[in-house]
Write a structure and sequence with these properties.
single chain; 158 residues; mainly alpha; Helix Hairpins
Length: 158
């Protein structure tokens, strides 16, 4: 039974490690995706502001319209990226839940294994004490009944 629990504990630890690695990988991808989305959105706003300032200075209307259209495409791209970011956030939450579940299973098996080990040690200790106690109770003392039963007394009469 203990071997089975040890094997299950090792397997649970491997699964926990895999789940934690997956969660870290997804967290890294999520952070990159979110940062990229933020950068695109910030660039679109800066480009839009730049186009408006250039428009105030007197650039041709067609150039201003092209700049504003490009800015609008950047903002639309950032909005689409937000959807991908939201999807990755859900994946991250799911991966974190799976990693936590795997960790709890692994810890539960580790506790069960530790409890089994402690019980085995206590049983061994009890058996050792019982052996010592049996050895003491079966030991012959110098004043045992055997010596007195042979007709030999402890002193010699002269």
């Amino acid at each position: 039974m203990s071997r089975a629990i040890k094997a299950m504990a090792r397997l649970a630890k491997v699964r926990q490690d895999m789940a934690m690695a997956r969660a870290k990988r997804i967290a890294s991808e999520f952070a990159k995706t979110r940062d990229l989305s933020d950068q695109v959105l910030q660039f679109a706003r800066e480009y839009d502001d730049s186009a408006m300032r250039a428009g105030e200075k007197g650039i041709p209307v067609s150039m201003l319209n092209d700049s504003l259209a490009f800015s609008a495409r950047l903002i639309a791209s950032a909005k689409e990226q937000e959807l991908a970011t939201a999807y990755m956030h859900r994946q991250l939450q799911e991966a974190n839940r799976a990693a936590l579940s795997a960790k709890m299973k692994s810890q539960g098996l580790d506790r069960a294994l530790a409890r089994r080990k402690k019980e085995a040690e206590q049983e061994q200790q009890q058996a050792d004490w019982q052996e010592i106690e049996d050895a003491f109770s079966h030991r012959r003392s110098p004043f045992s009944d055997r010596d007195q039963g042979e007709g030999v007394s402890g002193t010699k009469d002269a």
